[in-house]
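Worked problem 6 (solution included).
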Amino acid sequence: MPIEWSDLLIFIAAALTLNLTPGNDMMFVLGQSIKGGTRVGIAASLGIATGLLVHLALVAAGVAVILAEHPAVFDAIRYAGSAYLVWMAIKILRQPAVGLDANAKQRNSFAAWRDGVLVNVFNPKIVIFMFALLPPFIRPENGMPLLQLFILGMVFNVGGTLINFAVAIFSGGLGRLLARDARAALWFARTSAALFLILAARIALERK
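Solution. The predicted structure is:
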């Protein structure tokens, strides 16, 4: 194995600590699950996982260095992601106030997966974060550095996805228990939209 077990265990502990820290991805899954239920939240989690694979490929290609050296490119990407989240919040608020079960049928899993991919990919801070997190654990003397990078990236990705699954199951189940009428559904919609707007502001205002 190209990665020493001692290094891998240390990385797993660090990755789980970071994955358990509430962040943009967790907030997005929470908002999707509250509005659409567990199935939609899990689909959104898989979308985020797919987006992380894109970031991992970008780190391997060295794009993180380009983003770090060209702030205008970094800002353009994150502003695009922030605008997309605002559009999602507006779309949610414009929907009629119907029960959660009806909304879940309207909101298919592919759309939730797609939005998870786009929200994650349009957050360039993730690729820079991964560029800072992964390389210190890579030992060139062990050979196959790209394989080492892939293994570490997948460990981080799988851990985060499992935690997002747990968030989706909990918040989606809570939504099913509470959202049985239009008034409750309206409250859930506003809560979900507010989460997306907060997330949009965080992405737009956060610094590298």
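Discussion: The mean pLDDT is 78.
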